Amino acid sequence: DRLVRAMPTIGAAVAGAHLLIVGDGPERGAIMAEAERLGIADRVMMPGFLRDPARYIRLFDIFALSSDSEQYPISLIEAMTSALPVASTDVGDVKNIVARENRPFIVPRADEAALAQAISELAHDAGLREKLGSANRNLACALYDEETMFARYRQLYGSAMKRADFARQS
C-alpha cells in the first residue's frame, strides 16, 4: 500500500504518472481498494504475474521497492541492469546493492513520506534519473553479472573449505 499512498503526491506534480505493480499475491485486493479509496485506481495497473519480468522492467522510468522485508532482491538487480534509478525502503541489502549515488533514495522502511519524496524527486528530474540509472547499470554489470557472481562464490567456498584450487574450477 505504500506505493499507492505515494501516488497522489507524485501524480499531482507529474502529469501522466502511473504505478505498475508486477506480481501477484494475497494483498492484491487491499492494494486496489486503497487505490480506489484515494481516487487513483485508474493510474494503478496490476497485471499480476508476468513471465520474464526483466522484459517489462525496461519500460519503467523508476524502480520503486516498498517492501517490509527483503534480503537480496533479484528484481533490484534486474532494474539496475536496465539502467533504472531506485527508490526503496531500506531493507535487507538494498542500500549496499545500489550505486553510491542512488543511496539517498533508499529511505527508512516505515517512512512513507520519505519514500513518496524520493519517488517524486526522481519523477521530476529526468537528468537525475539518467545519472542514477547509469551508475546503477555500471555497478550491476561490474559486480552482479552471472560469471562474476559464480567466480565470487567459488572463491568464497574455496576459502571456507581451505581449497585454493576450488576457485579455479568451473
Structural overview:
Helices cover 49% and strands 11% of the residues. The protein has eight helices and five strands, in the order H-E-H-E-H-E-H-E-H-E-H-H-H. It has helices at 2-13, 28-37, 54-57, 74-81, 94-97, 112-124, 126-143, 146-160, and strands at 19-22, 44-48, 63-65, 86-89, 106-107. A three-stranded parallel beta sheet has the order 3-4-5, sandwiched between helices. Strands 1-2 form a two-stranded parallel ribbon. Helix 1 packs parallel to helix 6 (112-124) and helix 4 crosses helix 7 (126-143). The longest helix is centred in the last third of the chain and has 18 residues, at 126-143. The chain is elongated, with a radius of gyration of 18 Å. The termini are far apart.
